[in-house]
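Hey,
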Amino acid sequence: MNEAPQKLFCKEVYKTPGFDTAPCAAELGCKHSGRRSTPMGETVPPPEQVSEHVHPTSSATACHNLPMGDRFIELGGFRLAAIDDTHFSISHRNGMTAQIFRSDGHVANGPRTDFGSFDR
């Protein structure tokens, strides 16, 4: 039975500038992008020729809704939120923020009480 082609999310692998020369590049870096090679004798159609089908399972009715709102998704007691155009945070309903990600790549660890999203 032939597998459907793997989805391609980008044409070129993005790497942080200078990544290839970092000591850990061999363990963490991507050597190739796109689909893995096809076994001999197997033909795989290009992604645009493959239609995807949804196959609900018996457990599908057990999936819970994910509350969403103004630039946030709530998972249990946590919210993953875009605070503004340059900040993304993971905060808890108890008022504490676990981590803040800035658009320039800076990561601020918590716990802290700013950049939460439960006031939305």
